[in-house]
Specification:
Layout lengths: L8 E5 L19 E8 L7 E12 L3 E9 L8 E8 H12 L13 E6 L8 E7 L2 E3 L9 H16 L2 E2 L8 E4 L5 E3 L6 E2 L17 H4 L2 H9 L8
Parallel strand pairs: 1-3
Antiparallel strand pairs: 1-2, 2-6, 3-4, 4-5, 5-7, 6-7, 8-10, 9-12, 10-11
The protein binds zinc ion.
Length: 235
């Protein structure tokens, strides 16, 4: 990934009052105000990005905030964003997926890439910030409890990801967000994703008898269909 010539920057404001437990070694340390330099943004060399974080959505090996984005003091059309903070290598790889194999699925099956920014530290110890559009809340209930049209959309999204050459690696309800407005499911959490050549051998048919996993030919798709209650119980 080539560094752009006139670096744009990101300032991330995170809530000052934060009663989380002390971070372990795997969690990047963040202050209430962090500055990053753009590694890749779709346009606007030299642009000043700023995110006012409103909510800590997730804390683990990455820290994920929801916030409101301004670029050069103006709110873009889609100003609600998610900032994912973590180790440089992993987030660069995830950004490469959004910019590469998942690019054509953005806005339909996965969130839209806004930018990748590097913070303090060098090499593997460095911290980065991946900014994506915020689409909605993560699913809280079990997928099988949702109506069939929603489950079909989830399976379609995963199939599209596989056809794009990516295995999600951690597919479950926590990797599904439900978009505000149209309630469409989008897949997130590609931190553990890998390159994939899908050998799916049969169309996924809802309410057909459950086929053997070898007939389906792709382990992640097979188990996603089980989680989504696609098939009638096996006999
Ligand atoms: Zn596959």
């Amino acid at each position: 990934m080539a560094r752009i010539e006139c670096p744009a920057s990101l300032v991330l404001h995170t809530p000052a009052c934060d009663d989380r437990t002390p971070a372990d070694d795997d969690v990047p340390d963040v202050s209430t105000l962090d500055a990053f330099e753009a590694v890749y943004i779709p346009c606007g060399d030299g642009a000043r990005y700023s995110v006012e974080a409103s909510q800590l959505l997730h804390e683990g090996s990455t820290r994920v905030y929801r916030g409101t984005l301004t670029v050069d003091g103006r709110r873009p059309t889609h100003s609600e964003v998610v900032c994912k903070l973590g180790r440089r290598q992993a987030l660069h790889r995830e950004a490469d997926l959004y910019r590469g194999k998942l690019a054509s699925l953005q806005g339909r099956y996965v969130p839209t890439f806004v930018g990748l920014f590097d913070g303090a530290g060098v090499g593997e110890d460095g911290m980065s910030c991946l900014v994506l559009t915020y689409e909605g809340e993560r699913m809280r209930e079990s997928l099988y409890t949702r109506r069939s049209f929603f489950r079909k959309k989830v399976v379609s999204a995963l199939l599209a990801v596989h056809e794009a050459g990516v295995c999600h690696g951690a597919f479950n309800e926590a990797s599904i967000v439900v978009r505000d407005g149209d309630n469409a499911p989008l897949l997130v959490g590609f931190g553990g994703a890998s390159d994939h050549e899908c050998h799916r051998g049969t169309p996924i048919e809802f309410y057909a008898p459950q086929p053997h996993s070898e007939v389906v030919g792709c382990e992640e798709v097979y188990w996603a269909c089980v989680v989504a209650a696609v098939w009638l119980p096996g006999v």
